Amino acid sequence: MSRTGRVVGRGAGGRIARSGIARSGVELLSSFRPRRALPTMVLLSIATGALVGILVAGFEQLTVEVLLERLLAAPLWWQAVAPVVGLGATVVILRLAGRGATPSTSDEYVRAFHERHPRLPISQLPAKLLAGVATIGLGGSVGLEGPSVYAGATVGHGTQGLFGRWLRREEAKMLLTAGAAAGIAAVFKTPATGVIFALEAPYRDDVARRALLPALLASASGYLVYVAVLGTAPVIDLGSHDVDLSIIHLGGGALLGLVAGLGGRGFAGLVRWAKGLENRFPIGMRILVGGAVLAGLVVASDAVFGHPLSLGPGVEATKWLRDSEHTLLLVAALLAFRVVATLTTVGAGGAGGLFIPLAVQGVIVGSFLGQAMGVNEIGLYRTLGLAAFLAAGYRAPITAVMFVAESTGTSAFVVPALIAAAASQLVAGTSSVASYQLDKRQGVVERRLALPLTSVLTTDTLTVPPDATVSELVHIHLIGRREREVPVVDGGQYRGMCGLEQVSDLEREAWDTTLVAGITRRDLPTARPSWTLRDTMTQMDSNDTDHLAVTDDHGTFIGVVRADDILRLDEILDETEGV
Questions:
Q1: End-to-end Cα separation, the chain, in angstroms
Q2: Nearest partner of 236 among 340, 377, 367, judged by Cα
Q3: What angle (nearest 5°) sits at the alpha carbon of residue 203, between those of residues 200 and 208?
Q4: pLDDT tens string 408-451
Q5: Backbone phi, then psi, for 551, in 5-degree steps?
Q6: Alpha helical stretches, state H, 31-124
Q7: What is the pTM of this model?
Q8: pLDDT tens for residues 564-578?
Q9: How far apart are CA 132 and CA 120, in angstroms?
Q10: Rg (CA), the chain
């Protein structure tokens, strides 16, 4: 009896355990799946990817075949002049055809991903692509993946506009992510990398997991359409991939990861500085100075290396490294030329991405360190440098490792690449070349508290002048409108708050003779329209109040924000779900 009981008990327990594991597995898988409209999402994701594949193929053909390759074969004087011509053409295209569009590309995808109501006008897409053609095709040192990602995100967002009646906001954002994945998959001929990048780019320490299935479908269809047109030749060819791995290589990967991680961190900080030049100097000055710097780099790099290796995204630089041996001084000089060229292009308003420049700089760092250590497998170190530098600069380690796996076509480099990418994250800090990355996905309350104060700002609030009597304040505002606190405003200028707490300390007989100015509370802070709801709640809590006046920098009264309005977040927002 007892044996039977024990057997039954174990059997039931085993079934319960297996059932629990099964449920956990199903729940995990379901968290990566769109919540509804699955057939519609499948069809739209495939169609989005195919269209993006065609767009990227045309963009790359025009940029590389028609312009860049001809530029690389042109006389030196034209190679020196071409970048400034490209930057000038970029500005003209964006202002006229793009109606004032910015040169930002892949950053626009990340920004739109985090916006509640993203705006990626399809009308600006041709201008952005042509701006990328002008910048990169005429020698700007940025990557083709930026306009490709922007094209994918815009097409995905535009698809939502056409089929919005059948899609929720969450599903519309999935199409935006799917389009970005297709853009990367096409331009690099790496479909898995496209998926991982689109999911990883919006966050530094998280992924957009619910967009996985649409991203997979769009990436696959975009890749197939692209390679059917232009073939499968890799963007960056690192040479032979035959190597016998040993524990020494793994240790070398960790060391390279730390070095490249610091380099990627520094470069990311410099990129953010270069982007900030837009707000400090007029575009004309930036183009002239940037064009002069790029021209000088072309002439100098041609004299030093025998080729103008500062031109273009940097693929020619990796070929130069691969085809022959060079001194450490030349390799270090090449890294300096490439970093300055990319920063100059970004600062001067060029349109393009930073994925390829980061990868190229990683290849150079790997070449330098491998050569300095005297290793024979220099190709391995170039690949690991690529993974570590890219992982640190974009804060996208999984993308970097997947790019290595797909680019090399071998599994031998995956483990050391994982070690290099992981080591780079230890020293990468929080900086990234992507301007709008968040640390991680936020919960519903966190996302709401990140909203601007203007989401709950009341601008039609009645105010009281400082020369009004307390009796008027009480009967008109405190009793008549049931207000607890009222802003005191004199000729548009905010003077303080006055309410029940101040009136309660005053004798009833003095109401008719006491002016509001005499009991106004002036120690409360004033909020600014640029504050978030989190900033506002923090100030309210610190000052023990549930009202804050909102003014501009000159003290002009704008309105009032109340704690009750912030707490009624369900009435502020019309949706609560996101990707």
A1: 54
A2: 367
A3: 55
A4: 777 777 888 889 888 988 888 777 888 776 666 655 555 666 67
A5: -130, 170
A6: 38-60, 69-72, 76-96, 106-114
A7: 0.72
A8: 777 665 454 444 443
A9: 17
A10: 29
| Token duo for residue 286 | 């930036």
Q: Positive or negative CA dihedral for 67, 68, 73, 77?
A: positive
Query: What residue has token string 């028609």?
Result: 66
Alpha carbons within 13 angstroms on the beta-carbon side of residue 430 total 5
Closest CA to 192 of 209, 176, 212, 172: 212
Q: Quote the CA–CA distance of 467 and 314 in Å, as a whole number.
A: 70
Task: Give phi and psi for 143, each to the nearest 5.
Answer: -100, 155
Distance (Å, rounded) from C-alpha 140 to C-alpha 345? 6
Find the helix or strand (DSSP H, E) in which 273 lies: helix 247-276
Q: How far is CA 80 from the centre of its chain?
A: 32
Instruction: Give the 3-state secondary structure of 110-164.
Output: HHHHHCCCCCCCHHHHHHHHHHHHHHHHCCCCCECHHHHHHHHHHHHHHHHHHHH
Alpha-carbon gap, residue 482 to 11, rounded angstroms: 67
Q: Which of 69-83, 381-395, 534-548 has the lowest mean pLDDT?
A: 534-548
Of all residues in the chain, the percent with pLDDT exceeding 70 is 84
User: How many other CB atoms are found less than 10 A from the CB of residue 190?
Assistant: 24
| Separation CA 182–CA 191 (nearest Å) | 7
Distance, CA of 531 to CA of 355 (rounded, Å): 33
Alpha carbons 116 and 550: distance in angstroms, whole number: 24
- Residues 135 and 107: their CA atoms lie apart, in Å, by 17
DSSP 495: E
Cβ(106)–Cβ(146) under 8 Å? Answer: yes
Distance, in Å, from the CA atom of 424 to the CA atom of 261, rounded to the nearest integer, reads: 4
How many contiguous H segments (helices) and E segments (strands) does the chain have?
Answer: 24, 4
Q: Which residues contact 205 (CB under 8 A, 6 or more apart)?
A: 395, 439, 440
Closest CA to 355 of 122, 123, 180, 215: 180
Q: Highest mean pLDDT: which of 71-75, 163-167, 554-558?
A: 71-75
Element (H, E) at 508: none
Q: Are 129 and 61 in contact (CB under 8 A)?
A: no
Q: Is the pLDDT of residue 148 over 80?
A: yes
DSSP reduced 3-state for 515: strand
**HSE toward the beta carbon, residue 54, CA cutoff 13 A:** 6
> Residue 347 in contact with residue 274, Cβ under 8 Å?
yes
- Of 249-258, 281-290, 332-341, 466-475, the range with the lowest mean pLDDT is 249-258
Total count of residues recorded for the chain: 579
Q: What angle do CA 394, 400, 405 make, to 5 degrees?
A: 170
Rounded Cα distance between 169 and 573, Å, is: 13
The residue-averaged pLDDT of 446-457 equals 71
Which 8-state DSSP code applies to residue 97? T
Joined together, the tokens standing for residue 86 give: 């490209």
Q: Among residues 563, 567, 501, 559, which one has the least CA distance to residue 526?
A: 559
Give the list of residues 6+ apart from residue 357 with CB closer than 8 angstroms, or none: 141, 142, 143, 313, 314, 338, 342
